[in-house]
Write a structure and sequence with these properties.
The chain is built from five helices and seven strands. With 119 residues, it is α+β, with helices and mostly antiparallel strands.
Length: 119
C-alpha cells in the first residue's frame, strides 16, 4: 500500500451491501477515473458511522480499508495494483459446528488469540 496513491472521502450516509451496513469502502480507480484525479484507490468512509466510533474503532476501520489496497511488483519491476479480498468469509454457525476447519480460518483464530494476549 505504500506505493499506492490513496484518496479519502467522507460520505454523509453509509452504504449497504448484502443487507450489511458499510462503514467504509475501498475502490481501485480505473485509468479513466485517474484522468480526473491522481489516485490509485479511493477510500470512502461513512460520516454517520464514523461519528459513532471511538478512536480505536476508527483506526481499525481505516486499517481495514487500507488492507484492501494490494500492490505487487511484476518481473519487469512494474507495480500491479488490485483490491485485496478479505482473508476469509464464513458464517458464524459453520465455525460453531466445524471450528476453524480451513487454513484461512486458522489464521484468523491465531490473530484473535494473539490480540487477546496483547491486550
Amino acid at each position: 500500500a505504500l506505493d499506492a496513491n490513496i484518496g479519502y472521502v467522507m460520505r454523509n450516509k453509509h452504504a449497504k451491501s448484502g443487507g450489511k451496513v458499510l462503514g467504509g469502502t475501498c475502490q481501485k480507480q480505473s485509468d479513466k477515473q485517474k484522468l480526473l484525479h491522481d489516485y490509485d484507490f479511493i477510500i470512502e468512509l461513512a460520516a454517520d458511522i464514523w461519528s459513532e466510533l471511538n478512536t480505536t474503532q476508527r483506526e481499525a476501520l481505516l486499517l481495514h480499508e487500507i488492507m484492501h489496497v494490494g500492490v505487487e511488483v511484476d518481473d519487469d519491476g512494474e507495480a500491479k495494483m488490485f483490491i485485496r479480498p478479505h482473508d476469509t468469509e464464513e458464517f458464524a454457525y459453520v465455525i460453531k459446528v466445524y471450528g476453524l476447519y480451513s487454513l484461512d480460518l486458522q489464521a484468523i483464530g491465531a490473530a484473535i488469540e494473539a490480540s487477546k494476549r496483547a491486550a
